[in-house]
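Bit of a strange request maybe. I'm writing a small parser for structure token strings and I need a real example to test against, not something I typed by hand. Could someone generate the tokens for this chain?
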Amino acid sequence: MSSAKDIQKVDIGIIISYCFDVCLGVNIDFVEMLYTYERGYIKSMNQCNIIEEWIDIRENDILAVADYLRSEPISIIDGGIMSEFERAFAEFIGTKYAVAYCNGTAALHAAAFAIGANSSTSVILSQYSYHGTVNAVLENGAKVILCDYDPETLNIDCTEVEKCISKDTVGMVITHCWGNPVDMDSIKRIKLKYGIKVISDASHAHGAKWNGRTIGSLATEDIACFSLGKNKLISAGELGIAVTNDVRLYDSLLFMGHPNRVPSALKSSGLKDYPNGIGNKYRPHPLSMVLAMQQLRRYPEKLERNIRTNELLTEMIGNIRGYTPIKSYVGAKRVFWKTQFRMDEDYWRGISPDLIIQALLNKGMPLQQFHNYSIKEHEQIWSHKRYEGQVVNLSHQDTPDNIIVLPGFVQISSDSIEQIVSAFSLVSFNKGDL
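Reply from user aminoacidic:
Good idea to test on real output. This should exercise your parser:
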């Protein structure tokens, strides 16, 4: 397994230099504030007012939707905006094929079907994941085997995966949590050793890379699925898409979710005897694809800003006592759907994580719900008779309760950055008041 990057505590002067290197113009007063914090003199600050300046839905997007409504069909089976969007997204990721769906969960449902998830097979997932990822497998009748996660990165622990493999294992679904790539070198070794399929749940990871290649395009990944739902890095309200380089998997993806488009759109002959696939209709709405196309065109700029802003925040907050950034594996270039920090147990000993989070909220920090990404948090779903006996939990871990989650900012002012870092500094310095 690749070792995670060590995010070291560095000299404040390095942070200051870094700030200017990325042209965010952190001012001299803030530099003095950081030195003051290091001397232990910060006492108070005003309530923060953090404003995200990047706008996803713009006037030209509204005009594009209006133009489409005036001249194009409100529902579409094939061709038109659907083919345009699928081609554009496949090109963005670097794959041969893409199939659009009404949301990311539907894309995962179809992907699990395509790799052979059924009542006689099992699929491995991380215990730290979204319940919809699990449901996508269960709805195919397969068993879900829950594996430990790596607490340093929050991704599936590749050292534990082999313990979960059995004669029934057909594949695994790996979630690149919060935009942070899984250890793909280890996944490749496991795939080659056991001959199992790999689905990337890249719902958070639009544009993330592994060793310079875009997540979704690696040979290790049989299929990758992306959500373009609410507040994702590319957001069209409700939309999903699956990408692949395998023509047979492409046909299977169409077969699950695109009636009427099948059989004419199929590229091989194996499934052509079924005029409507297997009946499920997961077609996306044309207007969501219009919005997605608009955002996809300007996504390179958004992606650059997202990475630059959050790498800066990660560096600066990571140099304040009590906070450690979530790590990334060597070879990973993450994106930031959200930005996470771990509260250091030794530094905050005796202080409840809830008190630390509340103190940051009181300073005006726009902290976000942690989503309870542990599958154990949703055990009431798996006890329902629909899924009875399908979830096998081989993990012994609980949900981490020491994670702070900030939004994945795109474009915020240097003043906002100063306010965020000041708030984290003050809560740390004044921990004795909690």
